[in-house]
Amino acid sequence: MARWLARGFIALAVVLVVMQFLPIGGPRMNPPVVSEPAWNSPETRALAKRACFDCHSNETVWPIYSNIAPISWLVAYDVNEGREKLNFSTWATREQEADELGEVIREGEMPLGNYLLLHPEARLSAAEQQQLIQGLEATVNNR
Fold this sequence. Notes:
Helix content is 55%, strand content 0%. By secondary structure, the chain is mostly helical. The chain contains seven helices and no strands.
């Protein structure tokens, strides 16, 4: 039995090492910031930076675990998807929907639950959520 456990452990270790060399999700990098919104206030930007920028900007902070597969695959996927849907760093190149921004925050869809597990600082109080929603709506409608 011990021999099978040892073989299983070695096989698992080999699989984990091989996984580190699979380029799934692409490189962990930050393209240049092209443009940002004309924020309605510094407080709105600070709340967005705290709760949204890691996935919705080109200013992602890539923690050490973002380089270790298979977690790195999930992190890269979430950042790529987030940037595709909304990117505060390429603001002028896309139309943003104010109603949708507020809705996903109001309904608790954003920030993602798995993100909040490792980033408790991104958890906003009800008052902060309301302030962010109002600030984002004012920012979008300010165009």
